[in-house]
Each structure stands twice: as C-alpha cells, then as structure tokens.
Fold:
Amino acid sequence: MLFTGVSSWASTVALLLCTAAAYTPASTAQTDQLAAQGLVNLYNWETAHYTRGQKCQISNGYVRQEWTNLTQTEKTAFTDAILCMMKKPSISPKAAVPGARSRYDDFVATHINQTLTIHGTANFLFWHRYYVYTFETALRNECGYNGYIPYWNWGKSAFDPINSPYFDGTAGSMSGNGVYEAHNATEALPTGLNPVPPGQGGGCVETGPFKSISINLGPVAPTLAEPEVTPGPNMGLGYNPRCMKRDISPWVSSQWNTDADTYNLIANNGSNIYWFQTIMQGLFDQGFYGVHTGGHFTFGGDPGGDIFSSPGDPMFWLHHAQIDRVWWIWQNQNIDARLNQVSATITINNTPPSRNGTLQDTVNLGFNAPPVVMSNLVSTIAGPFCYIYL
Structure:
C-alpha cells in the first residue's frame, strides 16, 4: 500500500486519539498459524535428521516469547538488563570508537561500522540473527539476565502503536513516544517517496524504563527533521551524548506492519529468499517500506530513524527478533528447500557492484563475538544457536 494522503491520515489520527483508552491488540492469527505449522514441520524435520549426540533439540532449546506474553517481572528483568549494559564499560579501543562509553555502545558501534555491508545484502538475515543472539548472550553473561530476547509481533500494535503495551510509557513498556516537538515530515526512504507525516512526538522520551538514557553514538544519516538532529562526529563513532527521541507513527505501522503484511510476505515469497528478503526490507523506488523499514519507522526518531545507529534505541532488539522470527517461519514452511538459501551481493543494494554472497562468507561482530561462517547460522537449532519462537 502506498501513501493515501495527509487528509485521510489526519482523520485516522483523530479517531485514534478518541479511542486511546480502548486499546485492543489486532489479531495476528494468520501469521501465528504459519508459525505453528512451521514448528510442527521443524519437529518432523528434526526427527528425520536427528543424529546421535546432537546437542540441540527442540525439546531442550530455549524459547523466545512475544513481549506481551511476558509477566511484569520478566519485562522489568529485560529492561533492567539493557540498562545494565548501558552502565558496563566499553571494551572497544578508544582509537576505534572514541565515543563509546558502555558495552551497549560497543554493539551500536559494530552496526554503524558495517551498515553498508549488512543491509540489502546476502548476509542481512544471517548477520542480524547472530547480532541479536550475541546481544542476548551478553545480557545473560554480563548482566545476569535469566531470560531471552522477546519479540515484537508488529501486527498486534499496527493500528495503535502509541497506546500499545510496547510504547505506552508504563514501567512494563519499552518506553513511550517522545514529547511533542514541532518537526517536518521524515524522509524515511532514500528515494524521498512517501515521507512520514509529522506525528505527536519528535522530542525526548520522558516515560518508561529508558526515559533517562544517554545516546552516545551517531547519528550518521539522521532522518528526524529537527534542526538539532545532525550527523555526529567521526562518522557517528565520536561522542555525541543526547536524549533518545521518538515520533511513533501509526501511519507507518498501519500500512506496512499489519498481520496481513507479514502473512503475505511469508506466504507469497516462498520460492526464493531473494524476493523474501528484498520485499521484507522494502521496495524504495515504489515508496514501499516493507516490514523491516516499517518497523524501524514505527518509532523512528533519533537514533531509531538512522539506519546506522538504530540499535541505540532498545526497541531495535524486539524488532529484529521479530525479523528473525519471520525468517524462521518462512524457513520452516519448506525446510529442505529453504534452509540453506542465500542470495544477493555483499554491498547494499549492490552499490557499488560486488560479487554474490555465499554461505562460506563470514559474519564478524567486531569486539563482541568471534567470527562465524554463514553456513553455521542457517538454523536456530544448530551452529551456535538452540532456540525456537512461541
């Protein structure tokens, strides 16, 4: 679906404001049914391919759950662990990342450094699977977190993200919208098509667990149209302390992150991973955001609206856990045919032109984890992984 006009959007906003107190999650039955069938397929596939001594099985794997299925205690444990990572000292050499002040910054810096070779590329899904897993491992090993990364099932909040349990600003949320600050439309896509109309936020986030955090790195390519949001020093790797800003947009989520959008992505792109991952990331020359870009610009702002430093907003992790879940569901619909698929080149949208990626390419997370060959990242129950989604 493409841009339908600001006037219709304004009517939608008015309706949402009138019904803010009556938030009801939208159904995600279509995608959840695919997930359930995929899990059955995975169990049958595992049974057929089981080898003696195999360490990971579905029965002993851990489970990543949807945010709204966690208890308040579990949500607090997760957000506290992220805050802990923001207090742990950085391990990045100052010469490499002069602005890093925390372990959390180490992860943001890795994403900044590699952005142009991990988006619109053959390794997009593989790299981010390992990246989320490595952050999850750090939360557990370095901050005593006993749970796992939750995911954000976009469709639940697609029609009213501002009042949803993800962004309502309560202690059980991932913090709320930014305070209102006048700003222009957000040029979310590099083609300039379908800019995001200004929303109710745009300023600093002042509610929820992350209301007082400092964003230290980036932005590199900011999209939030405010005079003070300008590129940070040292290509985003210099010290640039500031508040976290958001401009939560139902205009984006209601067009590109509904359950129907996710279902259609999985169900209609089964023959080749190229089109699955390309439509997932967006068809920018058509003004189409896709679920990936749509998810990022549902909360947008700074750093969330910067493709380079977007992990600086903690909602990044729930969003990319869902990206991984959607890939997992897609794989599980036909495991033999889809498990080892890889396609596209090794530069962003093949710019500059480059060779095709292969499963023998390496994913490197800098100072955060040892490098891993992509062939070891194809399955969530093999290689370094042992998890499923429920």
The beta strands are 62-64, 178-180, 202-205, 362-363, 372-373, 387-389. The first helix runs from residue 6 to 18. Residues 95 and 237 are 10 Å apart (CA to CA). The chain is about 35% helix and 5% strand.
